[in-house]
Design a protein that fits this description.
The chain has 540 residues and is α/β, with parallel strands linked by helices. The chain is built from 24 helices and ten strands. The strands form two sheets. The chain has a seven-stranded parallel beta sheet with strand order 4-5-6-7-8-9-10. A three-stranded antiparallel beta sheet has the order 1-3-2. This is NLRC3 protein. Keywords: ATP-binding, Cytoplasm, Leucine-rich repeat, Nucleotide-binding, Repeat.
């Protein structure tokens, strides 16, 4: 525990104690900027507000390219070309990626109305590197920056100092001059106490340079470093003959808890693919390492498809131009039959959910066709449900059998679900109890839930109250009209609403009968402050 501002401590310890409030407890708010993977490690009770910086919208991307590329027809062709690769087009939300894309792609020729092959990210940065190395004096600096990029990326650093440059044998004066000429690539700035600091123009540049350096370093590490006379081609062929080093890069990336090496791996595999293609065209035997790597990555995906790293691994497969796992996932969505029995249906369901969301973004609304309503069809369509923001399942002939899989959808890390309408299905207490297990989990982000007319009684209400206590900060609207909670069920619900952090704003309930058995004080539920649910009375 760190409470004294004069006490020296590590950065992780300082951050942890700042967030918890042990250090500078009088500070009303602390603003932390980070990647989503790192933010997810902060317990929810310490977060008051989350702001997501999304960069360019799709319309702003198009506007950027139209302004950056003078030829209107060429700008239109570039936009069409990029849209053909969703992964790269999504990255264009970063203005820097847009700038690189415009610089490289405006010089290329496109055939109008011809379907293009999906664009990988690595070739774009390869072209950028070629432009950088056109001047001989830049070649040595690019190599040295690669060494700096990799060493600091492994440490999780994006800002460097003069001592870091010297550690990589970089002449500080030369680096300062390079930074003035190549601002998009490398920059110099003045930090605290007038100390000079350096950083890459964007983190993607650092990750690309780090991938290049990783390839060069392992390619030169032959057994016992015995033969220093080997050419670069011979060392690179040795590297691609063995998948061990590539696997180690995958494992290193997956061990990263912040996701700061995700693009590094994608670049590394893309570069490997480019080299493999060049060697094949030059008459060398194709490497066996890349096919082995493909199977290794697929195995990692299917072992834990709901992991935050899975989407990056799928992007790595796209970089290697392998779409077989995506095809299998979408086939499972259509048939409900696992393409490979080695992995359970739940894993294929999570993969299909991720694919639906990544290909088309989160679906606004989902509901089953009238002729296909029921528990069995719901289970088959679970991946689409996870990818949807609103799921409307009113009068869908569902029973408690559907509730367990819906609970899993609520807690899935790949779920986009914000609103769920289950009204007028025979869920009963058993089903609502199963559903409540999902509502109680911190991963659940559901904001609106309709359980009107689901034959819920006191046990179901008790389960919902318990869920509200466990995860009080997300549900905003709850419709429980048309059920029979009894006095005990109402008491349970009121107790659940007393949680300090309860964010429920609208509660549609039931009309309580006046008389000796009426619940005392039930009307006071609407008087709670500051989280005050609006209680709408309904005839049952």
């Amino acid at each position: 525990m760190v409470t004294d501002v004069t006490e020296a401590s590590s950065v992780p310890a300082l951050l942890t104690n700042l967030i918890i409030g042990n250090l500078l407890p009088s500070a009303a708010h602390i603003w932390i900027t980070s990647r989503p993977a790192a933010v997810s490690r902060i317990p929810l009770q310490y977060i008051d507000r989350v702001s997501e910086i999304e960069g360019f919208t799709d319309s702003q991307k198009e506007e950027f390219f139209r302004r950056a590329i003078n030829d209107k027809n060429q700008a239109k062709a570039v936009i069409t070309y990029l849209k053909n690769s969703k992964g790269l087009y999504d990255l264009c939300q970063i203005p820097f990626i847009c700038s690189i894309s415009a610089s490289i792609l405006e010089k290329q020729t496109y055939v109008p109305d011809k379907t293009c092959e999906p664009v990988a990210l690595t070739p774009l940065f390869n072209d950028l590197l070629i432009l950088l190395q056109m001047e001989r004096r830049n070649v040595k600096m690019v190599d040295e920056l690669g060494d700096l990029a990799f060493k600091q990326l492994v440490k999780g650093n994006t800002v460097f100092y003069e001592e870091d440059l010297r550690e990589c044998n970089i002449d500080v004066q030369v680096a300062a001059m390079y930074a003035k000429v190549n601002i998009p690539i490398f920059r110099e700035d003045i930090g605290l106490h007038q100390k000079k600091m350096y950083y890459f123009g964007h983190t993607t540049i650092q990750e690309f340079f780090a991938a290049m350096r990783f390839l060069q370093s392992v390619g030169s590490q032959d057994e016992n470093r015995a033969d220093e006379r080997k050419t670069k081609i011979e060392r690179t062929l040795w590297f691609f003959g063995d998948a061990t080093q590539l696997k180690s890069a995958v494992d290193m990336t997956l061990r990263s808890k912040t996701g700061h090496m995700d693009l590094f791996l994608r670049f590394l595999l893309g570069i490997a693919q480019n080299f493999n293609q060049m060697f094949s065209e030059a008459g060398f035997t194709s490497s066996t390492a890349l096919p082995e790597m493909l199977e290794y990555i697929k195995k990692k995906v299917m072992e834990n498809p709901s992991s935050p790293r899975t989407l990056n691994l799928l992007n790595c497969l796209r970089e290697l131009k392998d779409y077989s796992l995506e095809t299998d996932g979408m086939r499972f969505l259509e048939t409900g039959i696992p393409p490979d029995a080695k992995y359970p249906p739940a894993h294929w369901s999570d993969l299909a959910s991720l694919l639906v969301a990544s290909k088309s973004g989160s679906t606004d609304m989902f509901g089953l066709e009238v002729e296909n309503r029921g528990d069995k069809e719901l289970l088959r369509m679970l991946p689409v449900i996870k990818a949807s923001q609103r799921v409307m399942l009113s009068y869908h002939n569902l029973t408690e059998k559907s509730c367990e899989c819906l609970a899993s959808a609520l807690t899935s890390k790949v779920s986009n679900l914000k609103a769920l309408d289950l009204s007028f299905n025979t869920l009963k207490d058993t089903g609502v109890q199963l559903l409540a297990t999902g509502l109680a989990k911190p991963h659940c982000r559901l904001e609106r839930l309709n359980l009107s007319g689901c034959r819920v009684k006191q046990d179901g209400f008790a389960a919902l109250a318990k869920a509200l206590k466990s995860n009080p900060s997300h549900l905003r609207k709850l419709d429980l009209s048309g059920n029979e909670p009894g006095e005990s069920g109402v008491f349970h619900l009121i107790d659940g609403l007393k949680v300090v952090k309860c964010e429920l704003q609208i509660l549609k309930a039931f009309k309580l009968q006046a008389g000796p058995g009426a619940v005392p004080g039930s009307g006071s539920v609407a008087g709670r402050q500051p989280q005050t649910p609006e209680r709408a009375g309904h005839q049952s």
